[in-house]
Amino acid sequence: MEEEKKTEAKRGDQEQEQEKTLSPTWAQECIEDIDDWIESQGIYLRQ
Q: 11 partner at 20 to 30 Å CA-CA among 1, 21, 28, 42?
């Protein structure tokens, strides 16, 4: 039981470290995700 908890804690630490590391294009990716969501709502923006 305790070994499983330690393993899960290590996995959580690794996931947090990966979240801290952003790709160089993270801002553009977020903008694209937002654009896709807006279009999925039926709203189209002129560009």
A: 28
Could you read off the pLDDT of 1-47 as tens digits, one per residue? Answer: 555 556 556 665 655 555 678 888 999 999 999 999 998 988 877 65
pTM of the model as a whole: 0.46
Biggest CA pair distance of the chain:
56
Structural Rg of the chain based on CA atoms? 18
In three-state form (DSSP H/G/I as H, E/B as E, the rest C), the secondary structure along the chain is CHHHHHHHHHHHHHHHHHHHCCCCCHHHHHHHHHHHHHHHCCCCCCC
Residue with tokens 């305790």, as numbered in its chain:
2
